[in-house]
Amino acid sequence: MDLREMHYLLEIANTGHMTQAANNLFISQPALSKSLRKVENELGTELFYRDGNRLLPTDTGRIVIEKSSEILQLAANMNDAVDSTKNLKRGKVTLGCPSIVASLYLSELLIEFQRIYPEISFHLIEAGGAELTRLTASGEIDLAIVMRPIYSDLLNEIPIVKNQIVACAGQSHPWFSKSYVTISDFRNMPFITFDDTFNLHTQIMERFHSEHITPQITLTAASAHFLCQYAYLSNQLLILAQPMIKNQYGQYLFKVIDEMKQDINSTNILDKVGK
Fold first, then answer.
1. What backbone phi and psi angles, to 5 degrees, belong to 195?
2. Would you tell me how many other CB atoms lie within 10 Å of the CB of residue 21?
3. How crowded is the C-beta side of 182, counted as CA atoms within 13 Å?
4. In the chain, which residue ranges form alpha helices assigned H by DSSP?
5. Chunked in runs of 10, what are the mean pLDDT values of the chain (275 residues)?
6. Of the candidates 8, 3, 12, 4, the residue with the CA atom closest to the CA atom of residue 58
7. Distance (Å, whole) CA 146 – CA 133
8. What's the CA angle centered on 25, arms 19 and 29, to 5 degrees?
9. What is the pLDDT of residues 63-72, one digit of tens each?
10. In this structure, what DSSP letter does residue 149 have?
11. Whole-structure pTM over 0.85, yes or no?
């Protein structure tokens, strides 16, 4: 069964009449009937039955029609993406990204992109996720790469990386020997993390509030490098996304404590809806 035949099935289901469906499709009724019989023979079952003057889908027919609709939508989305790529010839893109995300992912992405589209240039804006979300929604920048959560109905969102939120402790911290921790373990336990300009901060706070725990935050900052250094010198716990810890791991004597269960952080590309 090809896309054309799927389209025919949907039109029969939508109209309930072979003649009307054929007229809408600009083909003859015998040709439409022949196409339907071909698909039914391939599947080995009838897809429609008559109820008075109407054609209604069988149980199997409903499944085939539902899946055909999904496949046709995916095909349409793919065509839109291809068309967008064809139109992307030259110009300048203003891209927002938190500095830590830029250090983890951005260089390789931009190098590969500009290898394919050498006439596209970029201007990079570095800020926290909350500010970049605002700038993208207002149209002040074209795209942003930020971490979830994202609170805006004005933005399209494409996940590109998923990472676990982790905590880490230095060798002299009492938690250094723990195999894993959960949010509930942080009751009355001081820690440091990103400040509230980062969406990761919001996500962490939501997890604490969902457990009815008041977080004991002693320091927030915008620099992962500074947070790692401070945690090492002060012997405090640090909560960040796992790649950020790994990026600093070789410089400081941290032990990454196992994943806080169910806490996933996603890095997404944002652009404005309708752009």
1. -80, 180
2. 22
3. 6
4. 3-15, 18-25, 29-43, 59-87, 99-101, 107-116, 129-138, 199-210, 224-234, 242-248
5. 88 92 90 91 91 90 87 70 58 80 73 79 83 84 75 68 74 80 85 84 85 91 85 86 62 51 50 52
6. 12
7. 8
8. 35
9. 899 888 888 8
10. P
11. no
Q: Give the SS3 label for residue 62.
A: helix
Distance CA 194, CA 139 (A): 26
- Tokens 């590309």, residue located: 269
| pLDDT per position as a tens digit, 156-170 | 767 666 666 778 887
Strands 143-147 and 91-96: parallel
- Scored b (16 or more CB within 10 A) or e, 47-59 reads bbeeeeeebebee
Nearest to 230 by CA among 243, 217, 212: 217
For residue 153, which amino acid is it? Answer: D
By CB atoms closer than 10 A (0-12, 13-18, 19+), residue 113 is middle
Both structure tokens of 156:
């399209």
